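Input sequence (187 aa), recorded before submission:
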Amino acid sequence: MSEVASEFVFADRLRVAVHTDDPLRRNALCKVVTEAGHMIVDEHDAADIVLADGRPPPNEVRNVVGLGVADDRLRGALPRDADPRQIDAAIRAVAAGLIVRMPAVRESGFGAMGESEAHPLLTPREIEVLAALAEGMTNKAIARRLDISLHTVKFHVESLFRKLGARTRTEAVTKAAERRRSDTIML
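Predicted structure, token format:
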């Protein structure tokens, strides 16, 4: 732990500057900070921590706890509706040299796809059956080519219909081709 961080870990009262454009919000945040046992200061230079609601002060990224700010340059980032315990914990953690992130604030990067966005995936065998359907083959011919039973071919065809939202063999092939075109990334 750095010398500066160890100095703040044991500090009971931190000097906090509150930065916001809304006077009502400033009063509410000042109340939260003072109730947590910290001291409000007006000068950002004299502050141990800057608590910023919305956008942080210009050119100020050291020891800033931002509320409702998704900026990776800030040491602390909380949702705008963070409760007083979370704000106090973030102030103390950032003063101790830690980085604070809440999952709701981080919007960059990859996330899980919603179910409505994803298409059901086709199995390798379903893709083989679909290719045979596209060639116009009968179930019996598909069974011979893939060396599987006729019942298994029927099962795969029904599964394709369900996953592609199709009612006929032609519709299944058409929908698969459309889906392939829409899922292709053009560079």
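Checked by second reader. Strands lie at 15-19, 39-40, 49-53, 64-67, 76-78, 100-101.
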